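Sample entry (141 residues):
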Amino acid sequence: MEWKSKNYLLEDGSKKMLGQMVGPKGIILFFYPKASTTFCTLEVNCFQENLSEIKSKGYSVAGVSMDHKTEQEKFAKECNIDYSLICDTDLILHKGFNTINGETPTEEDRSTFILDKNLDMIHEFRNIDAVEHIKEVIGKL
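Predicted structure, serialized as tokens:
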């Protein structure tokens, strides 16, 4: 799978493979349509507010959108987050996780995935509520 071996540009300008971002048990990847929009801001903040609990369960978090680095960097600073935002401008992750139904993501494409430390899928949440689904995600860890 191409998405497992790619180096992704992050909001801070660094490049990492997903395997370098995984916590002891795995990683939560959440896909959001557009940085700095209302519901995406709410979602990013929900993950930040629950980050210590997620980390205590052995998982890391990364947000994914097709936004460019400058947009992701601004968004991360606005929300004061302590996890990475992936700039998936070539849509490798979006296509790999089948989270895009056209050329640009929509609210219907909002999805979250729990992956184990080998990047194998444990659970998926599709067409989710930007705020409420965090409870379901934590419940599956």
